[in-house]
């Protein structure tokens, strides 16, 4: 019996070795920022998904903010990293570092908030703001700014706000929200980058009036009663892309099996996170550890477990889609999502040359590699990497705008407040392509967590 067991064990060992033999590099370092949406990377480590695929991964908390993450990916100190969705695009375009980086998968949808301090909230309330309205627009802020302009005249002092990085979703969301009521972010305000964990201290110190950041750094201020979260990015754009898993393109080419193994581990972690609210509670406990997010479990649970507390001193409100990791194709790197970031780089004057947006995004986003990895872990795929945003339930913009990648150039110039440095004519000449878009159904194949309603759980 013992001989038979040993023989069986040896056989299984040989099979495992054979399965993992193609992994070119097993010892890896993956960087992350202390935010709840690092959860897929942390869970892949803590629940053994990396180990399952033969990987020895050191998950490293980056203290230098997003610039530190980017520098270390480009230099090769990090093999992969948690990244803002705009970072690999910007680096490839040469406006945020200068390296060909790739987005291998989307880590999540949503997850951010715009939080303002008590002082500016009082001023906005004078101009009719109702904090309980969902979604809450920026009209009262516009009225306050107009009054401030009138009172100060030529000596007008712009209001100071924080975001995490110039090419972050947070920067674009804060600007989108402000501009929807006619605020001109580059004239009426000053928007500065800060590392996410420092946002609360900067607000309390009076360096900024408010900020846009991921969790748990909104709820920290709300629970301290130093301010309130006025709007989440789900309110601004339902199920919007947030973070990605990025790597250098030459690393991906040199180590294809390693890359696939990492992707499979992270996708499995994403499915685990959306399988149940109990898993989310367990994740909150794991993330609370000092080597990860280092925040109280009760703060992390405020957003991770289907609720969100917008207002100081009030109860949490239902918000099941505040974090979505796997459901509704949240792990899939849509080309159209990547291109949206390029439209914002143009809208706000960050790109000063006309580029073929389709060509750029197809160099950076890798739905082809994702499809290979997803097939091996039974993650379902959408009908196309190109889709239209703003037309489907659970995928609307707060201002009713529609983003169609085939009309990306027109989209940039369709806003009342827009500040491009490249002409529409130049961009039209560089973008003569068309793509076939297909709309994915709203589905929750992996469980109730992150799902709009249990009726969608398959």
From TrEMBL:
InterPro entries: NrtA/CpmA_ABC-bd_dom (IPR044527). Residues 1-21 form the signal peptide. Keywords: Cell inner membrane, Cell membrane, Membrane, Signal, Transport. It is found in: Endomembrane system. The keyword Cell membrane applies. Its main location: membrane. Pfam families: NMT1_2. The keyword Ribonucleoprotein does not apply. This is CmpA/NrtA family ABC transporter substrate-binding protein.
